[in-house]
Amino acid sequence: MNHVGLLYVGAVLLVNGLVLLGRVPARSAAALNLFVGALQCVTLTVLIVQAGGDADAVLAASGLYLFGFTYLYVGVANLAGLEPEGIGWFSLFVAGCAVVYAGISFWRDGDPVFGVIWLAWALLWALFFLVLGLGVRRLTRFTGWTAVLLSQTTCTLPAFLALTGGYRSDPGTALLAAALAVVLVGVAAGLALRSRGAAPSPA
């Protein structure tokens, strides 16, 4: 994944998590979603054009569309006041694709850390599906906290490491990444229980 795009995915995931927690109005978050969604899609198009038919390069770039379309969809829906079910069902598609990309990272690309990251995203988008697509409101705050906590550890941190030449991927680091993801999801669950109350509408 393009590392500059990944950095801004961390920003928009953080803001969208705060929307689910009722800390940021949905319309206020719409502009950032549109900016990041457009950035992702434009970046992907440029990468594919520059790939010159290289199948590996196209595959590496293709995951960007999952995020680009998600954020464009969210931005438009928040501005127009659309019902959230469409975003939720699209999130199910994204979650399924993320599992496939995780397998590619593990067994084809030899990048187990990003395999773990893709699995974390699969979980997060599956939660978006449950909350937005199926209307499981009791998971709203848990999903919001999960988005906030995973936004920085699965997007911002690896983006900065990659941009500065500090990213490395080996089985030991992947195990640490997986353990951190599990801990953060547990923290999100604890925070959601502590702040249980009237959950805001995720739309």
UniProtKB/TrEMBL annotation:
The keyword Transmembrane applies. It holds the Pfam family AmiS_UreI. The chain crosses the membrane at residues 6-24, 31-51, 57-80, 87-107, 113-135, 147-167, 173-193. It is a multi-pass membrane protein. InterPro entries: AmiSUreI_transpt, AmiSUreI_transpt_sf. Gene3D superfamilies: 1.25.40.600. It comes from the Bacteria. It is found in: Cell membrane. GO terms for cellular component: plasma membrane. Keywords: Cell membrane, Membrane, Transmembrane, Transmembrane helix, Transport. Belongs to the AmiS/UreI family. This is AmiS/UreI family transporter.
